[in-house]
Fold:
Amino acid sequence: MDDALGPQHWWPGESRFEIIVGAILTQSTSWTNVEKALGNLNRHDRLQARAIRAMTVGELAEMIRPSGYFRQKASRLMDLVQHLQRHGSLKKFFSRSTRVVRKELLSLNGIGPETADSILLYAGGHPVFVVDAYTRRIFSRHGWISAGADYEEFQRLFHCNLPRDAGLYNQYHALLVNVGKNFCRKSQALCSHCPLEVLLPGGRPLGIRTVVQRAESGSKFSQSSD
DNA sequence: CCCCAGGCGTCCA
DNA sequence: TGGACGCATGGG
Structure:
């Protein structure tokens, strides 16, 4: 286990490798389904890179079936694991500059900006802000950024307004996920009980720091995970 | 029955 | 460059 030196993250997972696997499996999929897939892998003692490589993609696909898109994800996961192998340890893989590792992750099939950044932040401890559907929804609904802004544009908003700190990005993202899940839901947003209610459009513009501090002090779910 | 979930690649205008 | 679509299971 080389996760002893890894960051303390809220992202579920016992090891850096499990976090990486989870990042692929959770693409457009609820975490409960991902848990079933991870449970299958764990039960068969398959939550290590070596054990994954020893399987066929077909076997891997069957094991992760509950996470949905299982054929695609099996193939993506296998590609990633093969790639990681060439770098030796995960520690070596992540020890290079954020820019280099990110570019490399993005070059792999099935790894887009959010998955790459989740892996960088939660498995690698790199200071990159993860922009997900919750983040986009919360910030565009409040009028803080256009809904049509692209990934890099959203990310720049955070990188330019917050200290470059992995622990901070980790915590902020966790808070946004909680607000997104429990209040700023896709349909039927529960603004009346939301910690960000006073920041609805029309109010005085406030910085990101204020937004997140409010989420932190107001959310009853700030410590919940999975 | 419906809608939704912590995306990504491909295709096409 | 950007919008539609396929990928798929499981829960509410």
Notes: Residues 1-8, 218-226 of chain A have pLDDT under 50 and may be disordered. Residues 28-30, 32-33, 36-37, 65-73, 148, 150 of chain A lie near DNA strand C (CB under 10 Å from a C1').
